[in-house]
Amino acid sequence: MGPHVLVVVENVPLGVDTRLRKQVDDLLAAGCRLTVISMRHADNEPYRELPGLTLREYPAPPEGSGPLGYAREYLLAFAWATVLALRTRLRGRIDVLHLCQPPDIYFPLAWLLRWTGSRVVVDQRDLMPELLRGRYDEPPALMLTVLHWLERRTQRVAHHSVTVNQYLKDRLVAAGAAPDAVSVVRNGPVLARARRAEPDAALRDGHRYLVCWIGKMGRQDRVDLVVRAADRVVHGFGRDDCGFVVLGDGECLDELRALSAELGLERWVRFPGWLPEREVFAWLATADLGVDTSLQDEVSPVKAMEYMALGLPVVCFDLRESRALIDGAGRLVEPGDVEAVATAITELLDDPAGRRRLGEAGRRRIAAELAWERQTPAYLRALGCGLGDGSAELQPDVPGRGPVDPADVRPGGGVVP
C-alpha cells in the first residue's frame, strides 16, 4: 500500500482548485492513499466517492472583508482543519502533510503532525504580503508585519516547499527555507487536454478577430485595464471588427460589466461567466490572441500558459515573471500603459504571420517545459516517500488522466493564475 498523504486546502475547495486537482491525479496515479480536507462545495461531488481518496469537508466560512473578517475566516478554517486532521491521525499514520497555501496559518498543526512522524510539504501558490499590496494602495503596516511573521513560521516547520516561480522561491528562502528545500513546480495546463480543443466560429459573434482574457476577477488582477484597452481598440482606433471575451467570475465581475456598459462596449465585450475547461479551451482555440493586465510582479500568469498551449500570442505587461514565461511568445509592454496594450493588440491583429510565429513559439515552450506533465516528477520528488524517483510509473501524456471528466475541470486563471 502506498504512502498516506493528507492535503489541507483553505483558499478554494478541492473541486475548484485546478492545481490541486492535477496534484490529486498524480498522487492517485502514483499509488498514494489520499485524505483531503476542504471546505464543502458542490464541485467536490466527483471526489466524494473516489477510490483511494477520503474527502473530509467542513462548512464554508464566510468570506473575509477587512482584517477582522479575514481573521474570522482563517480561524474557522484552521479550527476545522485541526479537528479533521487529528481525527484522521487517530485512524492511522500520515506519511505526508501537504499544505496548499496561502493562507500561512497551518504551522501549529504542521508541527504537531511533524512530531508524530509526518513529512511536511508546503505548496506556496501566492504570497500574502504581495497579495495585500496588490489589493490596497497603502496596506496596513501591522498586517504586513504579521503576514511576514506567518511566512517565517511556515518555512521553519516545512521539510520541503514547492512553488510556482523563481520570485516566490527567492522569497521563501528569504523567509528561512534552505535553497535546496524549495522546488519550482509551475502551474501549466495539462497538455493532453488542451490539444483536444477545436475552434468554433460561432464564438466570434460576427467579429473578424477575437481577443480573450480568462481567470478569477480579483482586484489585484486589474481586469478593468482589459476593458479600457478594448475601449481604446474599438473607439480609439476604430476597430469595430475586433471582439473581446472576458471569461471567468470573481468579486469584480459586476463592476466590469458596468464599466463595459458605461464605455458603450456591449457589442464588443462579452462576459460569459465561469465555464468548464472544455468550453474555455474552445474559446482559446477560436481566438486570435490572449491578454493579461495584472500588475503583480511576482505572478506567473496561468492564463498565459493556457494561451500558449493553444498557440495564442500573448499581450501583457513587462513584469519579471511574465517576461520569464512569455518572452518570445508575445508582446510585452510598459506596465500600466493601456494605450500600449491596445496598440500591441491592433498591431498583432494586422500581422497574421507574426501571430503564427509567436503562437508556435509559445506552443513549443509549453510542450517542452511548462505543461503540467513536465512538472509531475519534481512535484512527486518533493513529497518524498519514494515518489518521483522512478518507483512510481506515471503516464502523464494519457489524455484525460485522472478521475474527473476533463469537460468538467475548471481552468486555472488566477489564485492561483
Question: Could you walk me through the main structural features you see in this protein, from its secondary elements to its overall organization?
Answer:
α1 (18-29) packs across α15, α3 (107-115) runs parallel beside α5 (141-157) and α8 crosses α13 (338-349). Residues 390-417 have low confidence and may be disordered. The chain has 417 residues and is an alpha/beta fold. It is built from 15 helices and 13 strands. The protein starts with a strand and ends in a 34-residue tail after the last helix. The relative contact order is 0.14. The longest helix is centred in the first third of the chain and has 25 residues, at 66-90. It has helices spanning 18-29, 66-90, 107-115, 128-135, 141-157, 166-174, 191-194, 224-236, 253-262, 277-286, 302-309, 320-326, 338-349, 352-370, 372-383; strands spanning 4-9, 33-39, 53-58, 96-101, 119-124, 160-163, 182-184, 209-214, 242-247, 269-273, 289-291, 314-317, 330-333. The strands form two sheets. The protein has a seven-stranded parallel sheet with strand order 3-2-1-4-5-6-7, sandwiched between helices. Strands 10-9-8-11-12-13 form a six-stranded parallel sheet, sandwiched between helices. The chain has two domains: 4-187 and 374-408, 3-Layer(aba) Sandwich (Rossmann fold), CATH 3.40.50; 192-368, Glycogen Phosphorylase B (Rossmann fold, 3-Layer(aba) Sandwich), CATH 3.40.50.
